[in-house]
Amino acid sequence: MENEDKDRRPDDEAANGQQPPRPDGFDVEQEWAEKLGMDFDARRAATPPPVPGEGQACPPPVTPQAARDSSKMYVMPPGEELPERTPQPPMPPTYMVWAILSMLCCCFPAGIVATIYAASVSSRYFARDFEGARRASRNAEIWIIVSIVAGIVSNALYVPLTLLMP
């Protein structure tokens, strides 16, 4: 059966009721149009882009030096202007190292809160929420101080209480 398919010629297909491949290269498009119940007009179909080597030369590759030396620059169309960029404030400190140290060495629950606020500083800043980044940085700083104070107070109370217990 397969050998018979290989030996067929386009005029055999036309005799069997099958259409030969279209000479304009739109045979696949024609087949899909028939399956979808649509009309297909090869004259309205877009022509494929030219292939380099068929009468056209390939452009030379662009090197970084050629790109810098190029005088071709993008020119804005008349009437359009670039949007004004507001100056971006510097990123507030994240205090991430201090938050992790306060979590491990002082008071664990307050240190976790400080670490969460410290981690949210950079994500809020890069989301252009500058005020939120500033607040998160300030909250991280506050919770670091709370963690250190709670650690000092708990250790200051723990040592005398262990000496009093028999």
Reconstruct the topology from this structure.
Blueprint: H1 2-7, H2 10-15, H3 27-36, H4 64-69, H5 96-105, H6 108-126, H7 130-164
Helix pairs in contact: 5-6, 5-7, 6-7
Rg estimate, integer Å: 37 Å
Query: Which percent band covers the strand fraction?
Result: under 5%
- What's the shape? elongated
Biggest β-sheet strands, sense, barrel: none
Reading the helices and strands in chain order gives: HHHHHHH
Distance between the terminal alpha carbons, to the nearest Å?
99 Å
The SS-based structural class is mainly alpha
Number of strands: 0
Question: What's this entry about, in short?
Answer:
The chain is mainly alpha-helical and 166 residues long. 55% of the residues lie in helices and 0% in strands.
Protein described:
It is a single chain. With 166 residues, the chain is an all-alpha fold. The chain has seven helices and no strands. The longest helix has 35 residues, at 130-164. It is elongated, with a radius of gyration of 37 Å. The relative contact order is 0.07. Mean pLDDT is 78; it is low at 10-14.
Features:
166 residues
